[in-house]
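Methods: example folding runs. The two proteins below were folded one after another, and each record is reproduced exactly as written to the output file, sequence line first and structure-token line second.
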Amino acid sequence: MRHAIALALAVGVTVGAQSPAPQWPQFRGPSGQGLSDASGLPLEWSESRNVAWKVPVPGRGWSSPVVGGGRVWLTTAVQNKGEASLRLLAFDADTGREALNVELFHIWRDDFSTNAKNSNATPTPILDGDRVYVHFGASGTAAVTTDGRMVWKARLPQNTQHGQGGSPVLAGGLLIINCDGFDDPYVIALDAATGKTKWRQARRAPTSQAYSTPLVIHAADRDQVISVGASFTSSFDLATGRELWRVGYRDGFSNVPRPVFAHGLVFIATGFQQPTLMAVRADGSGDVTRTHVAWTLARGAPLTPSPIVVGDEIYVMSDHGILQCLDARSGKTYWVQRLEGAFAASPIFADGRIYFLSEDGVTTVIAPGVEFKPLARSAIDGETLASIAVANQSLFIRSATHLYRIGTK
């Protein structure tokens, strides 16, 4: 029961989160924090068991699936010699049939160099009514109707080493994007209706190589945009972009995990070279590095997977498979376990269970709590870096080549 209550609170504190309907509208779900109130999900599966459908996905992309309006949405980059077509795809959620495949932007070889574990279609789309918002980094950002018609498009300058990783967030009629890179890093809020800039804030650091997705929360009677960058994380006022507070971490950069928020604390991964997880109280003003850091985790912090809070505990998965359960308020460690494989996808909580997907297609399911209780271990074929989506009593998993609906119905 306490986990169900915690989920309701988590969904409620995230500004712009949609009601807990059977859909998954953005990266990490309705709250942006990997939490779902779904039930009736499969516990175990394989290539020959509990796969409702499996369909090939053209091109290469690591955007996570989003689900709404009876469709599953992805982006992809279809490369052909020296060029690439950046596309939006939709599949019928019941059958897996391709329902939409439309090119939104076109790029050339000089534009599509990425890290081996990244792609030119890594940011996850956002669903909102009859609109789909997509972001391909400096290659293009757009609002598209659900029948594939372009509403507006924009190009946001961004000079990155490894391509774009972070997804946008939609809140208060604004599409908010971290645009971090080697020079002139900034955070921008676009009018979701028109694509025009509503506010833009430069990063304090002269360079800000980072790949994180913002999180919008309501805390201390303020709507806050929590934006993780190199050296600093800032909280911006949602409506105006004014910086409310910031917390620093020496030499942190290339941050990937999306922050999470619970119990009045924002949990932030500081990035390379030595990752740390920081729990920061969200009611500060100005530089809060010395005043509002409640606790830190220096060993086993993630470089890539986002943490997840379920009830009073936070679960932290390192890239190398070290899973820890800690008290979210104090940082006290309850248990540490090694799971097989490497991890990039962010975990989800659904149907009273926590799902951890490895890069090798293996999902380990555990029961939440202060004792480690493994429940199941299931596998599909292929590489899996995208995060799981939950809808319609099913799990939607993207591999390097296919999209799966895992479910019994």
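Second run, written to the same file directly after the first:
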Amino acid sequence: MIELTDEQEQRAKTLHEESLVIDATAFSYTLESPYYERLKAGGVDAEVITAAYEDNFESAIRKIDAIVNTVERNPSRFSMAYTIQDILHIKKQGKVAIVLGFQDTKPVGEDLTFLRTFYRLGVRVMQLTYTGGNMIGDGCGERTNRGLTFSGIEIVEEMNRLGMIVDLGHCGDATTMDGIKYSKMTPIISHANVRTLCNTMRNKTDEQIKALGKRGGVMGVTPLPTFVQRERRPTIDDLLDHIEYIIKLIGVDHVGIGLDFIEKMQESKVIFPASLIWRTRRPDVFGTVDDFTDTPFAEGIESVSKLPNITRGLLARGYSDEEIRKVLGGNWLRVFKEIWGA
């Protein structure tokens, strides 16, 4: 448990409120009540919303339209963000900045025209693969371990040219390393933890984390329990251990937050079709279907509303205000600026 003095509690509260807080992996249900209220309680200023993953081109277009329409119907709560200036301006307005991201290149396939179209529609972050394989590489749950195909390298090159961030969150080992190798722009791992601390293929190896750090990338940690600690219900301290491990391995400039929270699905006991498939195929990697609906999130960060506990925990472990601000969102903003431009 996190224990702070009264003075430290006030410092943590002020620090969290004044920091730019970015969640690199969120879902569109956060645009609804009561999840929006939890988002605000957690102090989130910007979130990358997954607009598509295992979708085709048409399905992805419809999902983007639904997200933008919801944002436009709630102008006092949200605004779309396509640049870092947008994010900073929206924070000053007291609203949440919404960035569009994909967790798969399946909506693109091998078609660079589709890729450019999605960029023009506002997609600024794209994961190369979801859990399975696609036309450009393999995901972390696939039975094979291909690296990037020639088409995959071409997709990465065009993403670099456009200014779309290369995300390796769900990628398999070989695709992760190839993504780092072939991207000329800074790559990221939006939401994954440390395999050394929690042994699942969904997490990243020390080798991958070091390679990411050498390229200036950022890795977002997630409190989903099967990726934090598998022997018991994890706690906020276990999640902080992952953050601290990354900091000790590659430095405080390379770690952020990618919550990937599934609160609505867990509370409604409704599982994503893709999660149903992969938790049936690979319970060794993701946990079972029952884990998805019944396993509580890490204690102390059960909801996005508990995000300030990361600030409290890092403060308790002796990190400076500047270091904590980097973890909360400053590191993501640096990469956004590098890829999207000033």
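Comment on the second run: The longest helix spans residues 321-340.
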